[in-house]
Every structure is written in C-alpha cells, then in structure tokens.
Amino acid sequence: MKYAHIPVLAALCVLAACATTPARVPQLEEARAKVQALAQDPMVQQAASEQLADARNTLQQAEIAFEKREPVGRVTHLSYLAARHADIGQARLDEARARAAIAKAEAERNRVLLAARSQEADAARLATEDARLAAEEARRATEAARLETSAAQTEAQAQAEAAELARRALADLQAMETERGMVLTLSDVLFDSGAATLKPGAIDTINRLATFLEQNPEIRLIIEGHTDSQGSDAYNEDLSRRRGQAVANELVSRGISSARFEVIGRGEASPVADNTTAAGRQQNRRVEIVFSDRAGKFRTP
Asked: CA of 162: how far to CAs of 13, 73, 224, in Å?
C-alpha cells in the first residue's frame, strides 16, 4: 500500500532525533566569526544593516538550537545560512567602499580640471593627469560593478541552496511535485471513519511538517479536506473542512502561526479515484497540503 513504509520513516526519524549536537560545531564557529567581523565594520550600518540583522537573527537561532542540543543538522543548516548572510553583507560593504572611492576620484578629477583652467602653462601635464584619473575612475567603476554582481550572485546562490534544501525536506515528507507545486497527502487512515480527529499514527507526520515549517518560515500552506461521495454535499463539505482544520490545529499547537495557512473544505468535489469501489472511496477521503514557494506564492495550475 501507499503508506506501508511510514513505520520505517518513523523509525528513521527517532534515530535522527537521537543524534544530539556535539560539543563544538565548526560551521557554528565559522558563522560566529563572520557575523562578528561584519558587525565590527564601521560602515555596516550605512551599507549592510539588513544583512547584519539577518545574519544575527539566523545565528541566534543556531545558538539556541546548539544550546538546546537539537540535531546537529539543524545547527549546521542555520549556521550555514547565518554565514551566507554575513558574506552577502561583506560584499555590500566592499561595493560601498568601491563607490566611495569612485566619488573621491571624481572629486580629485574636478579639482585637477579647475587647476588646469587657471594654469594654462601646465595644460599638457594636467591633460595627462586627467586621463589617468579618468582611467582610474573607470577601473573603480568596473570593480564596483563586479562586486555588485558578485553580491547578487552570492545572494542568488544562497536562495537556490535554501530552496533545494526545502525541496529535499518536502521529498522526505513524501510530498509530490504537481501542477500546483509540492503537495503532501494525508490519507483517511489517519482519521476515524466519519470523524475529524487525527489518529496517533498521524502525529509523526505532523511533527515533521511542523519542524519543516519552523526551518522555512517564508513558506505558506493551503490545507484542503476531501471526502468520498457517501453522504450529502453539506455533510461532506463540513467533514472535509473539519478534517483540514484538525491538521491546522495540530500545527498551531506546535507553534506555527495560523496566518501561514488557509483551510478549505472541498467535500466530494475533487475525487482522485472511482467512488463506486471501497478502495476508490478510501483514496478520495484525504487531506492535501499544498506548499507555496519560498516567496510565499502558490503556483497557478
């Protein structure tokens, strides 16, 4: 059956939970050093305050995870993100310094040109100096453009790596890629027949889903309840909504803000199998969780 491997996954999760954080984590130490170096730069508030704030916030999460002896994977993941924010901030500082140097060169060039007008005898020398300063200005402008491009590439790479980590985590949850994006399906075996109370077997999946949402705060959910065709339309719509709400309530109880998801009762309107057979009706009784992208946007089919 589709969920015969769930006990194996649960066992793996128990083993993973036992992998406590070691006495020292090199990635965390590297992140500390990079964030501290960024914070001590006198230009950071002018040119990279946002990146510093992001780096400090993510580092704080890593420190808390380290102190709580959470799994080392979470500590290293948060440490990696903190270091990347610090790298982006450093690139912004380099760019700001390059632009300041350009402005200084431009001021010097203007001074030299003014002197040229008042000292005609030195015109040739000043023309040569002007050319040199212009070349230096062009060189600095090129360097500033390179640094800006590098900062953008670093930021894009960090975003891409974070997105890939999120995709792998969703794959571990057994979420499937669909035209609506990544979708996780909870079958009716997680509910009592005709009821909206989650069975104990659903708790492991809910816990893993809550952990994923904690690690990816920008991702939102649409939680859809579905039923088979047994019963009236009104009854099925209400039951499907209550089942979706039961999942939402479990996430809220684990600290996930209700503002991050929408609960919808679809009733019997969207079957995935034939309602004339018991096996088909069982497939139709389900809760589907649709994940947004990292910008909080849902894909339009």
From this structure: 21, 14, 26
Nearest to 250 by CA among 207, 288, 284, 191: 207
Q: Provide CB contacts within 8 A for 192, sequence distance 6+.
A: 199
Q: How far apart are CA 245 and CA 249, in angstroms?
A: 6
Q: What is the pTM for the complete model shown?
A: 0.49
| pLDDT digit string, tens, across residues 106-158 | 999 989 888 878 888 777 787 888 888 888 888 887 787 777 766 766 666 66
DSSP 199: P
Burial code of 36-59, b = ≥16 C-beta within 10 A, e = fewer?
eebeebeebeebbeebbebbbebb
Q: CA 231 to CA 237: how far, in whole Å?
A: 10
Q: Which residues contact 10 (CB under 8 A, 6 or more apart)?
A: 204
Q: In the structure encoding, which two tokens stand for residue 39, read together?
A: 């914070």
Distance CA 261, CA 283 (A): 24
Q: How are strands ordered across the β-sheet holding 286-291?
A: 176-178, 181-187, 286-291, 221-226, 261-265
The overall longest dimension of the chain from CA atoms, in Å, is 102
Residue holding tokens 């077997």? 201
User: Domain 173-291 is of which CATH architecture?
Assistant: 2-Layer Sandwich (3.30)
Cα 213 from chain centroid?
10
E strands of the chain, at which residues? 176-178, 181-187, 221-226, 261-265, 286-291
Residue ranges covered by each domain of the chain: 6-164, 173-291
Q: What are the residues whose beta carbons fall under 8 Å from the beta carbon of 255, sequence distance 6 or more?
A: 210, 214
* CA distance readout (Å), 30 to 59, 78, 261: 11, 12, 35
